[in-house]
Amino acid sequence: MGSKSSKSSSPTTPPQGSISPQDKAVLDLKNSRDRLQRYRKKLEVDEVRLMERAKRYMRDGRKDRALMVMKFRKKKVKESDLVSAQLLKVMEMVSTINWQSSQAGVLASLAQGKDMLKRMHEEVSVDDVMELMDDIREGAEIEGRIGEILGRGVSLDTVDDEECWGELEEMEREIRGIGGEEGKGEEEKGEEEKGEEEEKGEEEMPEAPSGLPVVMPEVPSGRIGEEEAKEGRVAVPG
User: Fold this and answer.
1) Which residues contact 133 (CB under 8 A, 6 or more apart)?
2) What is the pLDDT of residues 60-119, one digit of tens each?
3) Strands of the chain, DSSP E
4) Is 22 exposed, middle or buried (0-12, 13-18, 19+ CB in 10 A)?
């Protein structure tokens, strides 16, 4: 009697229905993964648009602008690949490593991946860049403006020019090849149409006589005089 009953030191269990930190991290990761997948689909469309714009600049002989378009495209693809790698790394950590021993690392990696994804979405859009290139004439000014709107000290100088030039040279060869085939086809088509018109004109023209010219017989002069005399008689009213 009088002795105090000792309280059990059993570990407290989380309330039923609550989300554990691990579950929350996995949920955040899946949300980020879904956002990345949507962004990658958009990026694929943007890549096609940027390639078409670069081809247009190459056809117009504006290689400096074509280079900037390719550099901007390379930058977008590189950042997307970095985010993909980061999120895959976090997914692997969550699924294979003990949560208690790697909780801090998983959360840090998750935060880093989400931050990278957020920064990508905040960057300038492809439409903004292409509109900027159409409005500004000086290439150096365009690159400076792109660097400003990208922010965080990021510039297109970090993109390898040689790799972009290699793609542009291949693009130029492709354009010349297609242009040559198209020009050749148009020339052949024009020759065919010209030949058809000549044949049609020949069919419509009357045939020339093949033999000697036909000589009309001469009318005797005396008879001609009689006919003229008859025609010259005019009845005079009495």
Assistant:
1) 53, 65, 68, 69, 142
2) 888 888 888 888 888 777 877 877 787 777 777 766 656 666 666 766 776 776 676 666
3) none
4) middle
Distances (CA, A) of 72 to 3, 67, 118, 161: 78, 9, 18, 11
- What SS3 class is residue 215? coil
Tell me the mean pLDDT in the region 163-190.
67
Classify 64 as helix, strand or coil: helix
For 45, residues 6+ apart whose C-beta sits below 8 A from its C-beta are none
In whole angstroms, what is the distance from residue 123 CA to residue 143 CA? 15
* pTM of the model as a whole: 0.49
Burial degree of 87 (CB within 10 A; 0-12, 13-18, 19+): buried
Residue 132 CB-half CA count within 13 A: 22
Whole-angstrom distance, CA of residue 160 vs CA of residue 75: 10
Token pair recorded at residue 27: 């949920």
The conformation of residue 31, written as its DSSP 8-state character, comes to: H
Quickly tell me which residue has 């690392």 as its tokens: 105
Q: To which residue do tokens 């290439």 refer?
A: 139
Residue of 27, 29, 77 lying closest to 51 (CA atoms): 77
Number of Cβ atoms within 10 Å of the Cβ of 49: 14
Contact 164, 172 (CB under 8 A): no
Residues 6+ away with beta carbon under 8 Å from 186:
none
